Amino acid sequence: MRWDRFFEDLQDQFDAEWEAERAILDTEGERLRLAKVGLRERLVELGRGDPAARTEVSFELRDDSTVTGRVSAVGADWVGVESAGRTGIIPVGSIAAIGLDHADMLRSARPGPDGRASLTERMTLGFVLRDLVRRRVPVTVLTAHGRALTGTIDRAGADHLDLALHDPGSPRRAEAVRGHRLVPFAAVAWVRVDAVERL
């Protein structure tokens, strides 16, 4: 009888050690999984689901400004944000921090199944800006130094854009243009589309 109890104690001890080892392995496995999750993947998760059900997040930018809205699209190096009925484009490189609630933080850390990136997810910032050039949409470009430039993007190169400056809300007409700026993509904190456009 004493031997039965001895073996039961050994079995209980073995089970407890096995559970502790499995918990350690699970924790380490989760750490390794999270080590492979990139910011872009988390942004994609924040943009999934019904647009009306998405919560607002705050993008704190390198120029100390904050853009608050819902993630509407995520590209290769940019994120689209819907805020107060307007669309904004934020280069991922200009994001200093993202404020979001705990539930969204946990949800975004669990990306969906691996699959092929959608066409939107493969588009670069230059590609999206060239689409705005084609549409002749008025924009406000906020630079990394906090300067707001309003106008229409005339051209978008590999790493910069050409902006014709004019008053917000007015169409780009030669007589309305009051100057031009070459703006490197690295200096763009965000681009607000001043017309009612959706990306």
Can you describe what's shown?
The protein has 199 residues and is of the alpha+beta class. The chain has one domain (37-199): SH3 type barrels. It is built from five helices and ten strands. Strand 6 and strand 7 (148-156) form a beta hairpin. The mean pLDDT is 84.
Note the main sheet: 10 strands, antiparallel
Rg over C-alpha atoms, rounded to the nearest angstrom: 24 Å
Overall tally of domains: 1
Q: Average pLDDT, to the nearest integer?
A: 84
Number of strands: 10
Element order: H for helix, E for strand: HHEEEEEHHHEEEEE
Low-confidence runs: none
Beta-strand fraction estimate: 25-35%
So how many helices? 5
N-to-C span: 75 Å
Q: Estimate percent helicity.
A: 25-40%
Key features of this structure:
199 residues; alpha+beta; SH3 type barrels; 5 helices; elongated
Topology (elements, then pairings):
Layout: H1 2-35, H2 39-46, E1 57-61, E2 66-74, E3 78-83, E4 86-91, E5 95-99, H3 102-108, H4 119-122, H5 125-135, E6 138-143, E7 148-156, E8 160-165, E9 179-184, E10 188-193
Antiparallel strand pairs: 1-2, 1-5, 2-3, 3-4, 4-10, 6-7, 6-10, 7-8, 8-9
Quick rundown:
By secondary structure, this protein is α+β, with helices and mostly antiparallel strands. It is built from five helices and ten strands, in the order H-H-E-E-E-E-E-H-H-H-E-E-E-E-E.
